[in-house]
Specification:
Chain lengths: ~400, ~400
């Protein structure tokens, strides 16, 4: 991969400047052509030409609003919310989620469908994903929209071709998920991608979360498996093969509980969702293995709100272990913030005080290097929302979309 | 910090294209104007204009060589090695190092001076650094060169102003090293910067090491303290405050030996230089604390070459622990390679086989995610060489140097 300065030729400049205009409008709309020129440094003729092109392609539109200004009134511009949609999806242990957004990132739909991925093969899961995707595509295209892309988030390792060498929590190995999904959608006419769910969640944080715009950020997923999506200077950290962010087996306590990976005291074995339920509700598995964790988390929350002592003590201990794990990330990455999702967010009021104290105590840099530890504000569909955001990437980079495509058959 | 697409205005384009030309010549010289145009996509008139400017500013020169080609002979271009120099320095426990390079990165001088930084205050160390710097500046300017910059590498946390909140191995706290160094050099007329030594070492790897050009790379320094310099997609990972790369206290074994940070079984406490000497040469401290580790490392190498069983077993165990630490980095960062310096490089033949096996065993992704583990080829002056490389950054980004300055008084 070529690193370092890249030559600037005319079509790159045009795409880059298109991207600059779109980004400015996305973050400052409604705004005028003069506003864009003034704040981006592009000259007025260039802005005018780009805006004309973007209006023709239905990426921008004029609102007709004008402001009272000295001199001629200015026509205001916004992203055109109508002709396009982008889809994001995620596979959880017990459900599938699909999110559709418009060009401005505004939510068009959020659907959740129960599906037991733990008991299904990768192919069965892809079939179910494709079925839900087709329904969502049908809904948005019935509204007259063109789908720009679909990105699916899964837990585990996802390589750059969208193949999943390993998703341990789903028991998938060498699963060609992107290829199977494209085939199941029968060449839908828009790009279909597969990405690690924690990576997508951090992209959603960057765009939609409480700490949107933070350049050095980590989203830690809470679930059976714990994964990290990492932004470095605003870009996703992928690594040489796309496998970065595997933190579930950080070795925190070799004398700790057994982990499914064979070792003891890994981060997941200490603070993963099944471990938390097992530790705080010792009777939860008396009827058999837990498959739906949501009611168990609600029980824990109820006990904590009732100030049950052993629950609070257990949550504080788990919080300390979480803080210990986050401290390793803080030492290595020096993020500005770490946002925790899943059950960590659900139990945040009782986990995070202890976690923050341990984070500060253990990080080498003073004040944890400035790292803030908070619950993610994005809720249960964070990865799907990130997938939809990712599916907008090509247009947002200034590449014009291909003309409208037929709905998926 | 503004992330995302940046507007492209005319002076940015000029600087970027200057950078592209310089980079092409650096990596492909000698080459002709036509070669540059053909391989960078810049048009011939632009290349010609840039080359003229760069020759005027003594950044490029014509070699006078021509190739036999169809049509007119082409004048070949190379970086102008003569008018400029960049300096890099490092502070080790027992010595200071200064390296000077020309614009092409060719070594002009490498000096090492014994200095007991462990027994000196930050100010005393800065004074010694400035003295050595002045001598090196004097040497290169006596040869008619202009110094483009000086970057000093230190262990520990270095913030973006060049202040060192903590360098635990040197016992520095809140040391305003860059400011003191600039003052000690009495406004030298070139930029003076301070950076974490592991960061500088990985920059040197990117430019000069065996794996030069690798986009996702880690250099792990071996010494009393263990630090990581991390490249992500060819860019240095710094984090929100510049503190990224602190891996010395990765928790590998809470039942392990006591660490100076107060905990047990940190990476440093297991495989840092003093720990290695203590474990393999139990009598080394019978005369008092070891201050000069080089002879002890030589003793260990001699024992290993003589196939002393307990030394080989000890080195294998240390290698496994090193591999365990590297596996945590491989899981989190998915680097293409990890290069180990200092005593790790010196003991590589006996450490790395066990380390690689443990790395592969412990990393979640198959084949350690593709991560190669090797000894750094850069030797003892890696950080100083990286400092000199960093000091070239402004010119390499296409910003023209200010006219020649007088030598430092």
């Amino acid at each position: 991969m070529q690193t370092g300065p890249q030559p600037t030729d005319l079509s790159d400049v045009r795409a880059t400047n298109r991207a600059v205009v779109l980004r400015y409008v996305r973050t400052h709309s409604p705004c005028s052509r003069a506003d864009i020129a003034a704040h981006t440094g592009l000259n007025k003729a260039t802005v005018s030409s780009l805006v004309t092109e973007l209006i023709e392609r239905r990426l921008l539109r004029e609102t007709g609003l004008t402001e009272n200004r000295v001199g001629r009134p200015a026509t205001m511009l916004v992203l055109d919310g109508e002709p396009y949609a982008a889809l994001g999806m995620q596979v959880d242990a017990d459900e599938l989620v699909v999110v559709a957004v418009d060009l401005g990132g505004n939510r068009l739909l959020t659907w959740r469908r129960a599906f037991g991925a733990l008991d299904a093969s990768p192919t069965e899961t892809v079939t179910a994903v494709a079925k839900l995707a087709r329904r969502a595509v049908g809904r948005v295209t019935a509204g007259g929209r063109t789908v720009l892309g679909l990105t699916l988030g899964v837990p585990g390792l996802v390589d750059t071709t969208g193949t999943v060498p390993l998703a341990a929590t789903l028991n998938w190995r060498d699963a060609p998920v992107a290829a199977e999904l494209r085939a199941a959608l029968r060449d839908p006419g828009f790009p279909v991608a597969v990405e690690n769910e924690a990576n997508l969640a951090v992209l959603a944080e960057q765009r939609h979360g409480d700490r949107a715009g933070t350049a050095n950020l980590v989203h830690l997923t809470g679930g059976a498996g714990i994964g990290a999506g990492v932004l470095v200077e605003g870009r996703l950290l992928r690594g040489g093969r796309g496998f970065a962010g595997q933190v579930g087996h950080l070795p925190l306590d070799p004398a700790g509980p057994a982990c499914r990976c064979g070792r003891r005291g890994c981060l997941e074995a200490l603070v993963g969702l099944p471990a938390v339920v097992r530790r705080l509700l010792p009777d939860a598995e008396s009827d058999g293995a837990v498959v739906d964790f949501a009611p168990e988390i609600e029980r824990i929350r109820a006990l904590a709100r009732a100030e049950d002592r052993s629950t609070l003590a257990g949550l504080a201990e788990i919080g300390r272990q979480l803080g210990h794990g986050v401290a390793v990330l803080a030492d290595l990455l020096n993020p500005e913030a770490v946002l925790v999702g899943g059950h960590f967010a659900a139990l945040a009021p009782w986990l995070l005080p202890a976690a923050r104290a341990e984070l500060t105590r253990r990080t080498l840099a003073p004040d944890a290097g400035g790292c803030r530890l908070d619950a993610s504000s994005l809720g249960a569909a964070a990865a799907a929302l990130g997938g939809a955001t990712a599916a907008l990437a090509t247009v947002e980079a200034g590449r014009l979309p291909t003309p409208a495509v037929a709905a998926v058959g």
